[in-house]
Design brief:
Pfam families: Acetyltransf_3. This is N-acetyltransferase domain-containing protein. One of its GO terms (molecular function) is acyltransferase activity, transferring groups other than amino-acyl groups. The protein is α+β, with helices and mostly antiparallel strands and 210 residues long. It has two domains: 140 residues, Gcn5-related N-acetyltransferase (GNAT) (Aminopeptidase), CATH 3.40.630; 61 residues. The protein is built from seven helices and seven strands. The protein has a seven-stranded mixed beta sheet, sandwiched between helices. Strand 3 and strand 4 form a beta hairpin.
């Protein structure tokens, strides 16, 4: 995964993501945005020195957007995932990638938005207060010995581990079904496959610790 600065060429993509019903339900402002208002907002956002708008990209293409606004307390961060990128456990990794630089990061989350809360907490954010119908979270990022490129490489390894784990969970369920049917030959074949996938996970964890 990687982050790149947004441009006006991303306007339509951001507009579609912003007006997605699930995105609006989780946003501070839930009403739909018109195309004209969105273009005005986009142009203003790209011209502001205190606002940093990024597009997150991965192997499957654009994953979402992250907005970082400099404020008196630090940097307020918000994230929008593309509909096709949801349910893949990517939000926490993107939030970690966006907060690698030393500084104080803040986020506002609707109390009922448990998915966002879990993602921000997994990325190191902690709840600090409830005000104006929103839950506020904070993360104090310290100086890291690793470069952003090194951290991004580690995050890719974590993604690889997650993908292998996901496949292996299916194998475990298949093993259970076969065992219940008392089919020894098929069970042994699944055990060998599970062992192979576990070895892949071990190798990825070893690289992560390098």
């Amino acid at each position: 995964m990687r982050l790149r600065p947004a441009t006006m060429a991303d306007a339509r993509r951001l507009f579609d993501w912003r007006n997605d019903p699930a995105t609006r339900a989780a946003s501070v402002t839930t009403v739909p945005v018109s195309w004209e208002d969105h273009l005005t907002w986009m142009e203003a956002s790209l011209s502001q020195s205190r606002r940093h708008l990024h597009i997150a990209e991965g192997d499957i293409g654009p994953l979402g957007s992250l907005r970082l606004d400099d404020c008196l307390e630090g940097t307020e961060l918000s994230i929008t995932l593309a509909p096709e990128a949801r349910g893949r456990g990517l939000a926490a990794s993107l939030l970690r990638l966006a907060t690698t630089e030393k500084g104080l990061y803040l986020a506002r989350i609707r109390p009922e938005n448990t998915a966002s809360r879990r993602a921000f907490e997994a990325a190191g954010f902690q709840f600090i207060r409830h005000s104006d119908s929103m839950d506020w979270f904070r993360k104090d990022s310290q100086e890291s010995n690793m470069t952003p490129e090194q951290i991004e490489a580690k995050l890719r390894l974590i993604d690889g581990i997650e993908q292998v784990r996901s496949k292996n969970n299916v194998n475990w369920m298949n093993l259970l079904r076969v065992a219940l049917k008392a089919n020894p030959e098929a069970t042994l074949e699944l055990v060998r496959d599970i062992n192979s996938k576990d070895n892949e996970v071990s190798e990825l964890f070893a690289k992560l610790g390098e």
